[in-house]
Amino acid sequence: MVGLRGAGFIRGQGAVLTVILPLVLAGCGAKEAEQAQVRPVRVAPVTFKDAHAARSFTGTIVARTEVQAGFRVGGRIAARMVEVGDRVKPGQTLARLDPTDLELSLKAAEARLAQAEAQAVQTAADLKRYTPLLASGTVSQAQFDRVKAASDAAAAQKREASSTLSIARNQRAYGSLTLDQGGVITAVLADAGQMVGDGQTVLRIATDLGREVAIDVAEGDLARLSVGGTASVALWADGDIALAGTIREITPVADPASRTFRLRVTLPADAPDAVRLGMTARVSFPEADAAALALLPSSALFHQGDRPAVWVLAPSKDRVLLRPVEVAAFRPDGVAVKAGVKEGELVVTAGAHRLDANLPVRVWDGGLP
């Protein structure tokens, strides 16, 4: 009887465990499911500053004007007097062509002019003799007209020969390559003994008309820049050199490959000699609008209907609040926000499209879950 009662007790205990154990397991599963719904979020603090003023652009020191120098006549280069890096003065001879053919052309033009002058003298004398004969009726009007036409033609040929001689003299002078502007030789594209055509580039010269910085800016930054605006220029090679520049030119059309606009920033005329062509420079522009902006990652932006918004971590640190914001500009490095968030607030920067106001969250510390 005792054994039977013991067995019954054990069976009763088993029945109780059978009922309680699923309830306990169900409670543990619910707790784990509740914990699994807490979503980690990555956040970043909001910091207002003059985001535009911090923008800088990298450019290259270039000459304001660069001349592609070549002979105005073709021929064989007899001598080249300059090398790359030489500084030249206005009117200095840079290269010279073989003058043989030019001298022969000049002598031929002189001979043609002498012949035309002699012909003009002869026909003028004939016309002078025929004039009184026409008045006396010794010669006919037709004979006089032929003599006069010959005299007029000879005078025209003389003028033509004189112009041809002037051209030949100019061409002989063109055998010496000179420039009206001084500068620095940046490239040599032809050497002595080489045949060149008229207008073919022989030397490339950066003139002394000034130095500039050429930079490329995105279309999002172009709206706040204009010709005549000021800029600050610093050299990468020498951080102690700081120059004030002025925007001289903005190309009206974007580059088809990079979709950027080329700007030319003029450097002051008294720039030190350390500012050399080809150096890398950093150009920054002061922002006229002093309104502070908060630069947020593009991944933080969320849209509430047709309005931009961001998720802000609540003071309790376990919920997020959807906050509409006013975007000042979309930039390559993020979104510039003008209003809607406060200094020091934590904004969700990853997974903004998977959040909900009722969803528990926790700040991700960077570790594994």
Structure report:
There is one protein chain. The strands form 6 sheets. A 6-stranded antiparallel β-barrel has the order 3-12-15-14-13-16. The chain has helices at about 1-35, 100-135, 140-175, 220, and strands at about 40-45, 50, 55-65, 65-70, 75-80, 85-90, 95, 175, 185-190, 195, 200-205, 210-220, 230-235, 240-250, 260-265, 280-285, 295, 300-305, 305-315, 320-325, 325-330, 335-340, 345-350, 360-365. The protein folds into 4 domains: about 40-50 and about 290-365, conserved putative lor/sdh protein from methanococcus maripaludis s2 fold; about 55-65 and about 210-285, Beta Barrel (Elongation Factor Tu (Ef-tu), domain 3), CATH 2.40.30; about 70-100 and about 175-210, OB fold (Dihydrolipoamide Acetyltransferase, E2P) (Beta Barrel); about 100-175, Helix Hairpins. Residues about 1-25 and about 30-35 have low confidence and may be disordered. It has 4 helices and 24 strands. One of its GO terms (cellular component) is efflux pump complex. Belongs to the membrane fusion protein (MFP) (TC 8.A.1) family.
